[in-house]
Amino acid sequence: MVHKVRAVVAKEKNAPVTIETILVPDPGPGEALVDILTCGVCHTDLHYKLGGIGEDFPSLLGHEATGVVSAVGQGVTEIAPGDRVILNWRAVCGQCRACAKGQPQYCFNTHNATQKMTLEDGTELSPALGIGAFAEKTLVAAGQCTKVDEDADPAAVGLLGCGIMAGIGAAINTGEVKRGEPVAVIGCGGVGIVAIAGAALAGATTIIAVDIDENKIEMAKKLGATHGVNSRQADPVEAIRELTGGFGAGVVIEAVGRPETYKQAFYARDLAGRVVLVGVPTPEMQLELPLLDVFGRGGSLESSWYGDCLPSRGFPMLVNQYKLGRLDLEAFVTERIKLDQIEEAFHKMHEGKVLRSVVEL
């Protein structure tokens, strides 16, 4: 059986998205059909729309989602129809070299659905991150579904599917923030502010938010930052050092993805400190650092992929923290919108007016 549903499609590079009728097949072996409840409007979807993540158009956008499993294919045992799930883009294979050495959070061969969703004329769609959840239904690999409690707000916990996990994971998993350790976050967009919340959850006591926008800095303070630095008005490296006894932060998280801000992160860390890059650079960007400084400052320079998370482990843990009142996921939901408001939501996100717009279906 093929299901006809409404979905948001980017037909060509940098063109406005449109609502189309798409065809979604019943699940085959190892696949799951999911009725979408909510889907966050993430910067990654904007990258797809602008052609920044390949040019496989038309693209079926949306990936930061919750839903209810409506059907599963042959061989699927870990989920069943009726299960509430968060969708993820790291369905581990269990066989690649990362999985074989006990690091499935770095799986190099993640699974997606084998069958293709299409437009009505048969044109194959490229689903964002193998998910494509700005749709009433989507088809994914069963391993892309992580079961969650039904009593959690789907709009809030759905953000764990990408942005929240990326930010919190950058602090807790990649940066390994310790209790009492000073942390600085450069860039207070959605992921940066979540990294601040992650640092607070890990027990950091000095958490410095750096941005060029005072509104974002104030928002960061509401969600865990103890200090704010406007880098239009002050040198962020000197400001971070001043706030950390002259030493620099033990962990500096760069959530912008630019060479200029990465250099600030590099020099704002303490000796033997850690720099975590979670901001996504564009292909043409180049970084130059004196090699002697790289050697002389010690520590580590790391990139955080999806918060270095294993969804089956990380999602339930963070849902529990949310339910215990330790992680205010609902604070990241700025507005709840409909499918036909996504283009407007992209503009608001680009202008820094929202943490997350969330589509409710």
UniProtKB/TrEMBL annotation:
Cross-referenced InterPro entries: ADH-like_C, ADH-like_N, ADH_Zn_CS, ER, GroES-like_sf, MycoS_dep_FDH, NAD(P)-bd_dom_sf
Cofactor annotation: Zn(2+)
Keyword Oxidoreductase found: yes
The keyword Transport appears for this protein: no
GO molecular function (one): mycothiol-dependent formaldehyde dehydrogenase activity
Domain Enoyl reductase (ER): 17-359
Keywords: Metal-binding, NAD, Oxidoreductase, Zinc
EC number: 1.1.1.306
Family from the record: Belongs to the zinc-containing alcohol dehydrogenase family.
Protein name: S-(Hydroxymethyl)mycothiol dehydrogenase
